[in-house]
Amino acid sequence: MHQGNIDLMIEYSVAVLAKGEEESIRALVRNLARKWPREKALTICFAITSAASQFEDLVKGRAAPAALAYKLSALVAADILAIEALGRHPATGQDLLHFWRRVDPYFFEI
What residues form DSSP beta bridges with 92? Predict the structure, then answer.
């Protein structure tokens, strides 16, 4: 995990959450994977979870955007486990994009 990239990913994610647009939040995972295809896929989970936590701190409580972000992070973690079970260690953003095209298109449909 490159510290500069993780900071950018978190900053980008907080900005998306702050807009409060459900469609943009749902696209967040896919957009992170596209913007940082060489980063470890778990970095995406970390960035989204960190952003959700920061967003909660900013709005002083659990907000719908943060709750959706936590859900998406959990779904990505499940996909990462599936990718790594297929032998890709560590899974990257690019691996996620490939997996979603071939196996589970959920993140391309939302």
Answer: 40
Looking at the chain, how many residues does it have?
110
Burial 79-100 (b: 16+ CB within 10 A, else e): bbeebeeeebeebbbbbbbbbb
| Cα Rg of the chain, angstroms | 13
- pTM higher than the cut 0.70: yes
Q: Which residues pair with 40 in a beta bridge?
A: 92
DSSP result, 36-102? -TTSBHHHHHHHHHHHHHHHHHHHTS--HHHHHHHHHHHHHHHHHHHHHHTT-SS-BHHHHHHHHHH
For the chain, 110 residues long, the average pLDDT of each consecutive 10-residue run is: 85 95 93 97 96 92 88 96 95 96 89
Nearest-CA neighbor of 28 among 41, 42, 9?
A: 9
Judge contact between 44 and 96, C-beta under 8 A. yes
Residue type, 17: L
